[in-house]
Amino acid sequence: MFEKKEKTYIGDTIYVTKHEEQPVEILLDIIVRNAERFSKQRDEMPTNVKMTYGQYLKILDYNHTLIEKKENGGYYIFGMMISL
Fold first, then answer.
1. Which residue in 52, 43, 63, 46 sits closest to 17, CA to CA?
2. Distance (Å, whole) CA 41 – CA 7
3. Are 20 and 27 in contact (CB under 8 A)?
4. Cβ contacts of residue 47 below 8 Å, gap of 6+?
5. Stated pTM of the model
6. What is the rounded radius of gyration, in angstroms, for the C-alpha atoms of the chain?
């Protein structure tokens, strides 16, 4: 009756901008689950995660060690570069 369509990822960016109101634990869970699905589908990790500045601040307030700054000046979470 209903066909289950599998989400296909285009590009190498995960977008979580539409989940602005979610608590930080759910936001982190969304990021991890999307990264897992992406890596299963394409056999590689995504390189970017697109989030809002508010989400970035929520994660920093929750646990500042989750976000790391690299020498190239970029900020990373779970090995993916953060784009605001």
1. 52
2. 9
3. no
4. 12, 13, 80, 81
5. 0.85
6. 14
- DSSP 3-state of 42: helix
Paired strand residues for 34: none
Distance CA 72, CA 17 (A): 24
Q: Whose structure tokens read 């109101």?
A: 21
Q: Is residue 26 classed as helix, strand or coil in its secondary structure?
A: helix
**pLDDT (tens digit, 9 = 90+) per residue, 1-38?**
667 777 777 788 999 989 889 999 999 999 999 999 99
- Laid out side by side, the sheet with 48-50 consists of 13-15, 48-50, 80-83, 75-77, 67-69
Cβ atoms 27, 56 nearer than 8 A? no
